[in-house]
Structures are given as structure tokens and as C-alpha cells.
# Entry
Amino acid sequence: MLGPCLFTGLVIFSLARPAGAQVPSSSAQSDKAQALLQEVRDRELNRQRDEKMKEVERLNEDLEKDKREAEDLKQSIVTMNTAVTDSQNRLTQLTNQKKQLAKMMEVAGLQIDAETLKVEGLKMLSDAQAKQVVAVSKRVEEKEARSAIEKAKMMPPKNTGDASRADLEYERKLDRAERATSTARVDARQAMTAATAKLQAASTAGAKAVARAAELGIPIRGEPAPTQETVEPLQEVDPLKESDPAKVEPSPAESENYPRAIPVHPENLPKTP
# Structure
């Protein structure tokens, strides 16, 4: 639209002349109009070319910007994939640790049960030995009563009636001593049996903990709990013979009914893991 207007203005300007001016020839006017028209066309083409160049440059800038944005997005995707992989590895590690801790907790529970039984067994063993001490004391009193009777029999009586009363009194004391000894023996035997069973249960529970730990692949610190085959039986020893060798050995019948004391040594106790 600008081109025709400019061309019309140039033609009007070229035709306008002052009064008395010389009128040019028609061919000269036509060449000048063509030159002006070509100049207008060239300027318009240059302007359009400049606009297109600017548009191309803008498009190129937008293209480069889009390319950089695409590269940034690709790099971000790579970074996110790496983060996801690291998180998955960490999740797997934590899951494995949770499973391992669950196994360790299971083994620890079995160990706690075994150790609890061991503590209870040791307390029962201590009580049983205390009852054995009472049984030994009662047995000593019984033997003292027997010894007093034997000494009395060896001395000639001064009076038959006094001798009879003395013998009766000695017999009563001996009877009370025998009954007290028998009761103490039963109590000590029952307490020792219960303590032995409790310690054996502790040994079995310890062996169970070790077996379960081996099944789960859980290492146990310290020595493993011994099984029934590896636990050495506790030695039975006559407490009177250990405390005083000069004491009179009991008869076979007394030895059969009397509970033997068990010395407590660390190597003889059941061990828990």
C-alpha cells in the first residue's frame, strides 16, 4: 500500500513546476518515473528482506533456546534416574537390614529364654544346696544322738530305773532326729531334682537358640550353648566326706536315701549363648 501512494506523490511532484519552467519531453518523464518506481520497489524489498532476516534470527534464537531446554531436560532425566536407582538400592539395603534385624531379634528372644531358665535354675540350685546344708545338719544331729546312746550303753548304770528313763529319753531324741533327717532329705532331694531339670531345660533352650541362629545365618558371640550330649553331668559328692573326712561313713541304706550335694563349678554349669 505504501508503494502506490509513494509513486503517486512522486508523479505529482514531477508534474508540478513553476510558471515559466521548461516542460521536459515525455520519454524523459517516463524514464524518471520508472527509476523512481524501481527505487520504491527496491526499498520495499529491502525492508521486507530485513524483516524476514529478523524473523529468521528470532526463530534461530528460539530454536537454540528450545535445544538448550531439551538438553537441560535430558540431563535432568538422567539425574532423576540416577537418584531413583540410588533410592532403590538404599531401599533394598534397608529392607535387607530389617530382615536381618528381625532374625537377630528372633535369636535374641531364644537366647533370653535360655538365659532366664539358666538364672532360675541357678537360683533353684542354690536353694537346693541350702536345703542340703540343713539335711547335713540334721544328719549330724542324728549321728550325735546315736553316739550318745552308744556311749551311755558302754557306761555301767548306777540305777536300773534311771538307766531305763535315760534310754527312753535317748530313744525319743534319736527318733526325732531321724524324722528330722528324713524330712530334710526329702526336701533336699526334691529341690535338687527340680534345679537339675531347670538347668537341663536351660541347656536345651540354649541349644535351640544356637540351632536357629545357624539356620538363619546369624553369628552368635561367645561359646555356643552345649547340647545334652556335650553337657557333662554334675558330679554327686557326699558332703560329709568333703567337709569332714573323720565323720562316720553312712550305711548303704542311708547312702541310698540321702541326697548327694552337687558342687557348683563354672565348667559344670550349662552355658547359654
